[in-house]
Amino acid sequence: SEESRAEVLARLPLRDDLRGRTPYGAPQLEVPVRLNTNENSHDVPGEVVQAILDAVRQQARHLNRYPDREFTGLREDLANYLGHDLEAEQVWAANGSNEVLQQLLQAFAGAGRTVLGFTPSYSMHPIISTGTGATWVDGRRGLDGQAADDPHQFDLHIDETVEQIRVHRPHVTFLCSPNNPTGTALDLALVEAAYAATDGILIVDEAYHEFARSGTPSALSLLPGRERLIVSRTMSKAFALAGVRLGYMAAHPAVTDAIRLVRLPYHLSSLTQAAAQAALWHSDVLLDTVETIKSERDRIVASVTELGLKPAPSDANFVLIGGFDDEKAVWRSLLSRGVLIRDVGLAGFLRVTAGTPAENTKFLDALADSLLDAP
Ligand code: PMP
After folding, report:
1. Is the CB of 97 within 6 Å of ligand 1?
2. Would you say the CB of residue 317 lies under 6 angstroms from ligand 1?
3. pLDDT in tens, 297-324
4. Helix or strand or coil: residue 247?
5. Quick one: 96 and 119 in the same domain?
6. 37: CA distance to ligand 1 center in Å?
7. Residue 103 neighbours by CB under 8 Å, 6+ apart
8. Among protein residues, the one whose CA lies closest to atom 1 of ligand 1
9. Same-domain status, 165 and 242
């Protein structure tokens, strides 16, 4: 039973600092409309399915051998995709950007060290940090005296950000642009100021960069001359390949040497490398859905505003919606109508991923009905 499992867990010689912790647990439920984990709802196009199958078939014969530990071809393709004159030796990849972040924190955080992030942000940043034994510091967003329904309450401001970095002197600082769950992208001036304020590592998590409004610059452009700056990306969102588990980062080549000290050898399987490369060779086709998702995101913002709710402006493939009196009741009511969205633990808010046009219409209809049930 659950109770005896809990009793056994209490007896197990678990690390003291892990006792009482809660694991990542976004619900994985079989419902018709799943808009809770910011995946790309569009299926992988047939042409790309074929390319992946061909690449994987070629590798299958050689699965008796360990994969290329340095995944050289994949790093070249990723550098090519990123542009900004990046070289393969500046790029590193792992099983999802979560694993990239874990490797970075194993190398640059760990016991006795401090990691700073600005809450609310991606919930895995503190979980991965404390998993390495580091101390997590919850930095804050917004300005003193902002109202609970102020759409700018989650903005980061240069002076306040720099001040918190100076006070906490973190070994690693996380920025997230566009930020999950608020959807806002950062000005590069803030990234530059944060970098200048720390002796530690600055990670800019750009998992959602491809969805940013056009002209939003990437922190990749700041890499030259900044050896402690790291920009992480993923193929789980815009590339519609969450199932492949392929995340990556770009930084000074010495950062990859630091990661090699902690990474498990052969961490990227031959199948993963082959699938990711085949996908990158067809990145134009794969990224075709990005424009649709951006306009659907804008439709969600406009439609929920008409329903009297308060969406945050978004540069991502999701929208943080404020203005709920009882967000938990609305979440449950949506679920009973077959629509799963995300309760991110912020009173008055829910987050929804922009799915296919049909899914978004189902969500918007269900939301209108749910507001009648559970205003
Ligand atoms: N960073 C952010 C901001 C995210 O929202 C996510 C996924 N929800 C990730 C990283 C991790 O994605 P993955 O491990 O699939 O690359």
Report:
1. yes
2. no
3. 999 999 999 999 999 999 999 999 999 9
4. strand
5. yes
6. 9
7. 92, 94, 259, 262, 263
8. 207
9. yes
